[in-house]
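call fold(seq) -> tokens
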Amino acid sequence: MNNNDYQEYVKQKAKNSPLWKNMIWAFLVGGLICAIGQGFFDFFRYLGLEETLSSSATSMTLILIAALLTGFGVFDDIAKRAGAGTLVPITGFANAMVAPALEFKSEGVITGTAVKLFTVAGPVLVFGISASILVGLIKFLLMLI
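ret:
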């Protein structure tokens, strides 16, 4: 079988992707997640928190909800239907951290869960901290001038 024959074989076996349906679901679910986040933000403002504290509380609440939904296996069901709509950065990151940890929990708390938890978070923390130090040094040097 040559390359062209193989490509034809793959085209015959592949299912057509319902592109418009997937885009609409992603838009609706992503928008719903953002609307829920705005609702939490407004609720925290109503409780008297300052804007920056409300933002932090909203982020933590969305992370907690996404982590719990991942733990209960609900987030994956939502993601199957919504696709990229669940990748709203804060909920997608929470899912990306919790899912590998759950997958390897049978290997133990340290060598399974903890190690896999930081396979995603580790690079983010390393590069985030490194970038913040670099920006801080540049700002400090510019202030000396």
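The mean pLDDT is 85.
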